[in-house]
């Protein structure tokens, strides 16, 4: 009993630590990656006893700075909502990751531990519910700050979130249809099967990006919109309306920044789970590698689990890298342009994708 | 508890009167707003995302430039002009100096004309780089901004080589320039231009066809050809509206009529046209600078004196002891700060007019005439004394016609100095460009105007 509790706690703790640490490191990645892209050196000054570790101590220094800064609250602000808003933002971004599987199962003795914080059979819906709820933090912040710029930002965030969520929801329907489940673990598992075994043999795994190429592009676009980062950063729009967090300072501001990074991680995690095979390593089965040319390399179960978790982490990092690349390359959409893209571009295309997927499934007779 | 107060605050004047009708939100953009480079305030009335009314308020950076100029001698105003358009201060320097020269009726030397042309064009490229980069940054493309600032850095290193400073350069002088170009300038300029061209090419690839960028810029902030002319707007904004007017072409001065170049124009008068005009102008400016440098007379300084250079103190001693025979032919070792100011260089870049231009150091130290000449120009109450009269001289600043109007009452101080800032007319028309557009369009439009606070508010 106590052991079961401990295992559940461990799973949750792993996801929490993964999210929080990755979120923290992302501030460093953002600085360093942008610096490399822009021919700069990037943050490298923070040091402990002269050790600079390529600026890796900056997230730590930032945290200390933010915690010790004055926690400013405008006189006209709504005291309760103003303080609550950043917590709402961070909380929902943090819990959203819970149902994303980071590995298959780990067998210790006769125990089978699912590598997922929460096993939900509607995991896809859960993630999006949490992501959508996160926007309440933004709206609260915008409204309670009693600042016109913040209000505009909140308004934009609400509109953007609806646009993005609808497009996200519609674009993953194709995936759900192909793999026949709303459970993220099942979807990840199904992506280990071979794609068109009758024609391609065991060579190509049925990853979502291959079965749903259009869905992948639509989802990633809408996902970036959901993270409220460039090119969809109109709620922030630092040069236009400064953003919904214009009145925030100190750690509360830091929490909003953190929430953006966490959302990036969640979207990257979802992209991985739905389209990049989740924790799958090509040709790795539960008992080791089964290569399509017939070779077999048996591995102990814990090693398989470690490989799977590692594969998941690497994939998430690659997707984050790609999202950062976009963030530092493109200019920002205008409010109405993002709306037009969402409602007249992403949404109809997602519907088209659903129809196409349905027709193809019918023609091919069943699932991939 | 704060309910009624907040309503007043959010809705602006007339809120809370219970009228219940539709009201616009008042948003004051600036003076402390990240995109209001320089200091300016745009009081907007917005309906949703659309700007219904905009009121542009200027004057936050007023520091009495014109009045300050009346206080000192004619050359004392040069450092003030640095602070007008602080992104391309060299053009201001030269334009002011040229206005005073026109008043005096003197002609600068050929080499000086070419130096002014080259340095003006380098400054223009710096200015356009800053403007386009900043506009891109305000649209969210931060990388483009840093690329362009990198290119500007190469050019600023050139400016630093020539003038000894990066921003407050004070390089122009009435009757010439401070010093000749340093050794190896041509090679450095070639390298810097090569780097700049690479950056421009990169930016073209990043922005010019970029769907998002085009959506944000095409058809935004439009000012018609008629209105542009009506508001007396010059520079890239006018050329973007389809009028090929350029002061360098219309009233050729310095070396602009001796080099091959084009005046790029566009038709639409929107932000995208302004961007394209600026991008094309940078290439033209580099063309002008390259040609002018190649055509510059007396490239290397001719060593027309004998013997080894001697120490200035020893030089003065010899003069005092009356050992002046041949002394004026001996060069002196100048401090590195005075590079390009030895007699040969000095005479090439400065007008030969004792009323205006200080004698070279050798002459000052080595002859009584030189010493007297020096003091006549330096002493309080003496100095440059143009004849009674007035003169207006305009050159093409980075943002348009930059003119100086100088009035002399015959004393050593200007009676009046008036600057025609290229930024002012577009700012008067700014509300026409942004009303009816969205609040997000305010920023790129304001960026495309390239307002420089120092020049606007003087």
- Structural class label of chain B: mainly alpha
Task: Identify the quaternary structure here.
Answer: heterodimer
- What is the N-to-C succession of helices and strands of chain B? HEEEHHHHHEEHHHHHHHHHHEEEHHH
End-to-end separation of chain A in angstroms reads 40 Å
CATH architecture of the domain at 75-298 and 422-457 in chain B: Orthogonal Bundle
Order of secondary-structure elements of chain A: HHHEEHHHHHHHEEEHH
Poorly predicted regions of chain B: 1-7, 13-17, 299-306
CATH overall fold name of the domain at 75-298 and 422-457 in chain B: Cytochrome-c3 Hydrogenase, chain B
Strand order of the largest sheet of chain B: 1-2-3
Question: How many DSSP E strands of chain A?
Answer: 5
Q: What does this protein look like?
A:
The complex is a heterodimer of chains A (368) and B (458). Chain A is mostly helical. Chain A contains twelve helices and five strands. Chain A has one domain. In chain A, a hairpin with a 5-residue loop joins β4 and β5. In chain A, α3 (79-95) packs antiparallel against α4 (123-144), α5 (148-179) runs antiparallel to α9 and α9 packs antiparallel against α12. By secondary structure, chain B is mainly α. Among the domains of chain B are: 3-57, no CATH class; 75-298 and 422-457, Cytochrome-c3 Hydrogenase, chain B (Orthogonal Bundle), CATH 1.10.645.10. Chain B is 48% helix and 11% strand. In chain B, strands 1-2-3 form a three-stranded antiparallel sheet. In chain B, strands 6-7-8 form a three-stranded antiparallel sheet. The two termini of chain B are 46 Å apart. Residues 1-7, 13-17 and 299-306 of chain B have low confidence and may be disordered. Chain A binds chain B through residues 34, 37-40, 76, 78, 146, 148-149, 151-152, 230-231, 233-234, 237-242, 328-337, and chain B through 2, 5-6, 9-10, 25-27, 33-35, 49, 136-143, 146-147, 150, 206-207, 210, 212-213, 215-216, 438-443.
């Amino acid at each position: 009993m106590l052991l079961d509790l401990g295992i559940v706690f461990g799973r949750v703790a792993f996801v929490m630590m993964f999210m929080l640490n990755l979120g923290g490191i992302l501030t460093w990645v953002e600085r360093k990656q942008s610096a490399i892209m822009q021919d700069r050196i990037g943050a490298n000054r923070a040091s402990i006893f002269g050790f600079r570790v390529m600026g890796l101590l900056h997230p730590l220094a930032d945290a200390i700075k933010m915690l010790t800064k004055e926690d400013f609250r405008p006189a006209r602000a709504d005291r309760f909502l103003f303080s609550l808003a950043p917590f709402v933002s961070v909380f929902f971004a943090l819990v959203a990751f819970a149902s994303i599987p980071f590995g298959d199962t780990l067998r210790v003795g006769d125990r089978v531990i699912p590598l997922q914080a929460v096993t939900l059979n509607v995991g896809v819906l859960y993630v999006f519910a949490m992501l959508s709820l996160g926007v309440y933090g933004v709206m609260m912040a915008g409204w309670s700050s009693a600042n016109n710029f913040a209000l505009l930002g909140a308004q934009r965030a609400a509109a953007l979130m609806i646009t993005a969520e609808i497009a996200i929801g519609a674009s993953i329907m194709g995936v759900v249809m192909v793999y026949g489940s709303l459970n993220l673990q099942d979807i990840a598992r199904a992506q280990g099967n071979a794609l068109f075994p009758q024609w391609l043999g065991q060579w190509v795994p049925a990853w979502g990006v291959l079965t749903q190429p259009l869905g992948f592009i639509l989802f990633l676009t809408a996902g970036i919109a959901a993270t409220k980062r460039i090119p969809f950063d109109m709620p922030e729009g630092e040069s236009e309306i400064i953003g919904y967090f214009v009145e925030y300072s100190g750690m509360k501001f830091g929490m909003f920044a953190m929430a953006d990074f966490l959302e990036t991680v969640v979207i990257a995690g979802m992209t991985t789970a739905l389209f990049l095979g989740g924790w799958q390593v090509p040709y790795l089965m539960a008992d080791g590698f089964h290569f399509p040319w017939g070779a077999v390399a048996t591995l102990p179960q814990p090693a398989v689990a470690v490989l799977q978790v590692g594969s998941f982490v690497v994939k998430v990092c690659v997707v984050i890298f790609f999202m950062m690349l976009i963030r530092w390359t493109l200019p920002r959409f205008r409010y109405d342009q993002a709306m037009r893209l969402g409602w007249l571009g992403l949404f109809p295309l997602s519907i088209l994708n659903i129809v196409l997927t349905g027709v193809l499934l019918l023609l091919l007779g069943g699932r991939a | 508890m704060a309910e009624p107060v907040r309503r007043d605050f959010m809705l602006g004047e007339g809120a809370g009167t219970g009228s219940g009708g539709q009201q616009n939100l008042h948003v004051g953009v600036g003076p402390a707003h990240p995109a209001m480079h320089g200091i300016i305030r745009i009081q907007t009335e917005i309906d949703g995302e659309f700007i219904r009314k905009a009121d542009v308020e200027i004057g936050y950076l007023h520091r009495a430039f014109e009045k300050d100029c009346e206080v000192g001698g004619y050359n004392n105003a040069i450092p003030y002009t640095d602070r007008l358009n602080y992104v391309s201060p060299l053009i201001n320097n030269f334009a002011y100096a040229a206005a005073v020269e026109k008043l005096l009726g003197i002609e600068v030397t050929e080499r000086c004309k070419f130096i002014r042309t080259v340095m003006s064009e380098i400054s223009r490229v710096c200015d356009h780089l800053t403007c386009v980069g900043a506009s891109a940054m305000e649209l969210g493309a931060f990388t483009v901004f840093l690329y362009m600032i990198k290119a500007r850095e190469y050019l600023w290193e050139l400016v630093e080589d020539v003038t000894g400073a990066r921003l407050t350069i004070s390089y122009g002088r009435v009757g010439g320039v401070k010093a000749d170009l340093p050794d190896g300038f041509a090679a450095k300029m070639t390298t810097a231009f090569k780097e700049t061209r690479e950056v421009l090419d990169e930016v073209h690839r990043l922005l010019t066809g970029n769907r998002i960028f085009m959506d944000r810029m095409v058809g935004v902030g439009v000012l018609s050809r008629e209105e542009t002319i009506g508001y007396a707007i010059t520079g890239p904004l006018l050329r973007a509206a389809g009028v090929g007017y350029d002061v360098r072409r219309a009233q050729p001065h310095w070396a602009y009529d001796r080099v091959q170049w084009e005046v790029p124009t566009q038709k639409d008068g929107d932000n995208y046209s302004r961007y394209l005009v600026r991008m094309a102008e940078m290439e033209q400016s580099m063309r002008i600078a390259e040609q002018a440098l190649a055509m510059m007379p007396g490239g290397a300084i001719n060593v027309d004196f004998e013997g080894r250079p001697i120490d200035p103190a020893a030089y003065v001693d010899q003069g005092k002891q009356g050992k002046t025979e041949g002394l004026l032919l001996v060069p002196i070792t100048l401090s590195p700060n005075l590079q390009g100011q030895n007699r040969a260089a000095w005479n090439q870049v400065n007008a030969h007019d004792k009323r205006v231009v200080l004698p070279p150091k050798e002459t000052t130290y080595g002859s009584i005439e030189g010493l007297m000449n020096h003091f006549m120009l330096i002493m309080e109450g003496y100095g440059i004394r143009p004849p009674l009269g007035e003169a207006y001289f305009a050159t093409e600043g980075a943002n348009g016609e930059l003119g100086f109007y100088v009035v002399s009452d015959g004393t050593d101080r200007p009676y009046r100095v008036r600057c025609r800032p290229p930024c002012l007319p577009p700012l008067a028309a700014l509300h026409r460009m942004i009303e009816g557009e969205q609040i997000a369009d305010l920023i790129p439009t304001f960026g495309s105007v390239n307002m420089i606070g120092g020049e606007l508010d003087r």
